[in-house]
Amino acid sequence: MRLTKIELTEINLPLIHFFETSFGRTYERRIILLKATDEYGNEGWGECTCGEDPTYSAEWTDPCWLTIEKILAPMVLGRDVESAADVWSLMDSVKGNRMSKAAIETACWDLEAKSLGVPLGNHLGGNRAEIESGVSIGIQDTLEDLLEKIRVEVDAGYRRIKIKIKPGWDGEVVAKVREEFGDILLMGDANSAYSLNDIELFKSMEELDLMMYEQPLAHDDIIDHAKLQAQIKTPICLDESVHSPDDARKAIELKACKIINIKLGRVGGHQQAREIQRIAREAEIPVWCGGMLEAGIGRAHNIAMSTLPGFVLPGDVSASARYWHEDIIDPGVTVSSDGVITVPTKPGIGFDVKQGRIDDLTVRRAEILHDN
Ligand code: OSB
Ligand code: MG
Question: Which of 51, 79, 120, 139 has the fewest Cβ atoms nearer than 10 Å?
Fold first, then answer.
């Protein structure tokens, strides 16, 4: 594979409903889309999953744009690699910046799968025809709002409900949800809002039978999570702390978690995600696919990744209509009344990209060519 052109497009896409985590609220996404073209004119799409500000991770829209345009695209363009699986290694000398790298790397996987005429999930080594879908529900203004939101999603058939927690919106809220909805699959995501000083809170919530506590402690921590996990039965799931296959190996060795959330952007693309999935599977650690409020291209990549064998728990990949009035792919992602997404069977990401919709939402573009 040899890329000849990388096109960047920033779109601004308002969310139907704000999304609030322990670090703040998002009303409108600023999303970088990436189109890669090879020497034969094959094309592939990727989406940079960074946030609008550096609160979930250090990466955010403006520096990601520059990093792709000035650093990563020139490293990849014109270079010959055997396959998409080797694109990661072209960017090896750059530290961090995994969401930026993933935007390029995932586009190369789409391009390659399309040029071979196979669905991306199969090309990655996955074989599921459908994936189980869960929802992530942000912090709401009132408990009533939260219960109402959960009711809608439970009635829609979603297989698992995740709610965001933070100090002041935790034990009592989770207890009310449990009381109202009985034995649904329920979990809490803290986005690193707590410390080891809160250990009594996590112990007191044990009786609420959460499937897992997602990233309770610091975004860059593994060791304190191991200390917490040693004192509670509820599984800890790491999100923010696992960037690489080595991070996953260390977290598993130290018993810092019993479950891992894999996000394509956070880990740097499909090759890294596959590797983390393999390591977790060997250690019998279940993984699931997280979400970053992606538009359709990112959502489609998440669906493909979720077909890999280690993805045994329902993920955060849910219907486009929960987020957008109109998605940038056709059709939008839909979820059946029994909570599954049918994996598309067309080549590559398996959805058509709506160029007209993207044009309407575009605020800037850049084209990076290989000049030799
Ligand atoms: O921690 O999983 C997270 C959204 C933005 C940043 C971090 C997270 C999330 C979600 C939303 O939980 C998942 C989704 O619906 O895309
Ligand atoms: Mg999370």
Answer: 79
